[in-house]
Amino acid sequence: MKSLSLAALLFSYAFAFSEPAAYDPLKVGKSEVVSEVFEVKDAARDRVIPLRVYLPQGEEPAPVVIFSHGLGGSRDNNPYLGNHWAKRGYVVVFVQHSGSDESVWKDVPAKDRMAAMKSAASAEAYIDRVKDVPLAIDALVAWNKEEGHILSYKMDLEHIGMSGHSFGARTTQAMAGERMGGGKISVAEKRIDAAVMMSPSGSKFGDPDAVFSEITIPCLLMTGTLDTSPVGRTSPKDRLEVFPYVGGAAWQVVFDGAEHSAFGQRAGRGEGEYHERILALTTAFWDAHLKNDVAALAWLNGEGAKGVLAEKDIWEMNNR
Length: 320
Known about the structure:
Elements: H1 6-16, E1 34-42, E2 47-55, E3 62-68, H2 79-87, E4 91-95, H3 113-120, H4 123-145, E5 155-165, H5 167-176, E6 179-180, E7 185-186, E8 194-198, H6 208-212, E9 219-226, H7 236-239, E10 250-259, H8 275-290, H9 294-301, H10 303-308, E11 314-317
Helix pairs in contact: 4-5, 8-9
């Protein structure tokens, strides 16, 4: 066997004992993401729940992230999230909620669209949404075991995260443990392990401590200083009401100058100026809580997270 030269030997030792690469939540490989569409049928409600699923490369089952769109959206919104999270090793499932999706405004004259949107932001639509999510998870469980299905054995359903924007954030809050009916009713989905709320909503009814304190899974809340909404007249101040009362570990970012639309991306549109920050923080959060990545948690709690933010962004954690 040929012996190594002294220089080669020293190089091999240096490589073996070198510092590991710094954690980077924005780093992705060159592999392409596969996107597929599915439908879940709920016979009891005579309802169809459309899904778009982004699949990562690799043979090992991957943790799952579910996303709930805002009022008037669809399963095709926010592809920047689906593609990046999938490239980072997550199966990403975008749920479309009939009755509060794009069908609300698509065939409505422009002058009537706001009224149609306000009408769709109803208690009935909210209840439909919180019923959609468990059924979507049930379908994922079935497909994961179904021989020959494209999703067969692709998902690690012991590690599920959920996210959403606006009405989707409110849906996520309910699944994470927010109590409905002024704090009287819980519809928490126990299979969800961590949650990201983009443009969360405060409580209009009931004591916020009673409403939000049973959210005990890890949470990341994201909003902006200009995050208003004409539907429901939600103010930037209202968006901040959830974080102080969350019962589990929580982080919150307030992006300076960010409007409600900063978190969105319709199919075919370019990425916004806040998207890189959103991707960095959410990816580190998922890695920390769905993959138990200690480097990601250290990044989230240390200088890494602060380093991706703008000077006037506000970043805080509750240390629970």
